[in-house]
Amino acid sequence: MPEQGLRQDAGIRVPAPLAPSTSTLLICFSHLRWGFVYQRPQHLLTRAARHYRVLFVEEAWFEDTAPRLDLTEVKGGVIVAVPVLPHGMTGDEAEAAQKQLLNQLLAGERPEEIIAWYYTPMALGSSDHLEPDLCVYDCMDELSAFRFAPPNLIEREQALFDRADLVFTGGLSLYEAKRDRHPSVHAFPSSIDRAHFARAREPGSEPDDQIGLPRPRLGYFGVIDERMDLELVAEMAALRPDWQFVMIGPVVKIDEASLPRAENIHWLGGRSYDELPNYLSGWDIGLMPFAMNESTRFISPTKTPEFLAAGVPVVSTPVVDVVRSWGDAGLVEIAATAPEMIAMADALLARPKAAWLEQVDRQLASLSWDRTWNEMHARMRRKLDVSAATQRRAAKVRAGEAVHV
After folding, report:
1. Which end of the chain, N or C, is surrounded by fewer C-beta atoms within 10 Å?
2. Is the pTM of this model over 0.85?
3. Which domain-ending residue is among 187, 215, 249?
4. Buried b (16+ CB within 10 A) or exposed e, 104-123
5. Which whole-number Å values give the CA distances from 87 to 65, 301, 364, in the listed order?
6. Is residue 55 in some structural domain?
7. What is the mean pLDDT of the chain?
């Protein structure tokens, strides 16, 4: 049976018409799955859905099946589309199949405007036939530096730069790396849902898998992949066997057997966004043990302001954007080695928090995902207005009317 609010068509599940406040359709193409980790795409696109119909198109999923498109409406009104393709397709065949599924889905659509929003340049292979009124590239990571990056990613990114009307970046380092490649690049670093994470500052019910752990507790939450320095975590745990290291997040692109094992390291797996404040409320120190390699050169971790909003002091390795935005301001402690991180954590455990929290709250007062989206949206509307005016002028010229400059 199709889900409530969806109708079943041959080979495709199509969302029933929503009740949009505008006829504009925003189609997002993402390498991240909506239900993976709640982060930048989810924060921004749930806000976009207040203005537009939003279709979030994920990368293909492969099964022993005929091609189809699975659609689900998630909280906030976003429609998530997952292309499901048969095993054994070549890359070109998979892109052609996804293009056909997308065309089927959009066949009955007659929006006044279409906005194409990209998180991955690789999606051009299944969407470059679209002619959107606005094309946005929200570059949240240097994907070419990640493990298993497609060999043609850099070429595809250049093609996306050539098509895009606006480029947003998820941090200052990314902005500096991209600003000369497009005439309209704008930095929008990680923001924060302060009220959500501020719940961790209040007494609450701790999760069952954490409540029995001794103190102090040092915690990490987020994706666990090649960006984490596992040797650093192991060394810290060995230096302080009486400290508890709580590690929350899905393990991807690395072998779980490579995770360091010790009685005081607790790999709890992924947890939902709603659960995170309950975990953070029981942490004494937040850890950001990122490896210093190509995959972390341009990152701007969203968890930095989230730790701070939760009232959890943070020790991080010297990631460039963390140092510039938070370390230099005295809000996050920076250390490069396990002994240095232990020393910093020792100092934080002994430090009164009141003055630091006042400084944190002053810094976070101007940050919010609402503000980030509003500033992005204003730039988008200006571009759309200019585009519409240009089209009207061109129509008048074609009609033989005088156009006054």
Report:
1. C
2. yes
3. 187
4. bbbeeeebebbbbbbbbbbb
5. 8, 35, 47
6. yes
7. 90
